[in-house]
Design brief:
173 residues, rod-shaped, four-stranded mixed beta sheet, alpha/beta
């Protein structure tokens, strides 16, 4: 006879090893401390299973219920929770210090769209060649972006230089 808990950690019917259990019947009524044999008999008479729901208690707490239905409902709850869970992605927008107005507007529309969808936005300012000398121009563009997004986003990471690029991360409010 297998006395190990089932895969989901609960012992059912013959897997329960304790001689006495605190029993909760199928209506949710606390019956009290009874022998395992008596509890198994009551579960069998009700046409249900005896499930150990709190093995750490002394004596362990067991409940009479339909174990197949319990597992099915639990599985549905977990699937529903997974479905409602939103993963937050980090979208990247790359700019240059001497970006043209139209290009800037197109990038800003994309940033607004990403923030509306609930994603974080990483704005990367790329410097090439002698542009590294004029990092203040890149910082001005990033500050302009930050100013336009004040109502819809908060700065999670202020602009900082990493190699030949300056990075700023914004998250939706």
């Amino acid at each position: 006879m297998n006395l190990a808990p089932s895969r989901d950690g609960m012992r059912v019917n013959d897997q329960i090893s304790s001689l006495e259990v605190r029993l909760i019947d199928e209506t949710g009524e606390n019956v009290g401390v009874v022998t395992k044999i008596d509890a198994m008999q009551r579960a069998e008479n009700a046409g249900l299973d005896l499930v150990e729901i709190s093995p750490g208690a002394d004596p362990p707490v067991c409940k009479i219920l339909d174990y197949g239905r319990y597992k099915y409902v639990d599985q549905k709850k977990k699937a529903e929770a997974r479905k409602k869970q939103k993963t937050i992605d980090i979208k990247e927008i790359k700019m240059r210090p001497n970006i043209d107005q139209h290009d800037y507007d197109v990038k800003m529309r994309a940033i607004f769209r990403f923030l509306e969808e609930g994603d974080k936005v990483k704005v990367t300012m790329r410097f090439r060649g002698r542009e590294m000398v004029h990092q203040n121009l890149g910082l001005d563009v990033l500050n302009r972006v930050r100013g336009q997004l004040e109502e819809v986003a908060k700065v999670e990471q202020f602009p900082r230089v990493e190699g030949r690029q300056m990075i700023m991360i914004m998250a939706p409010r």
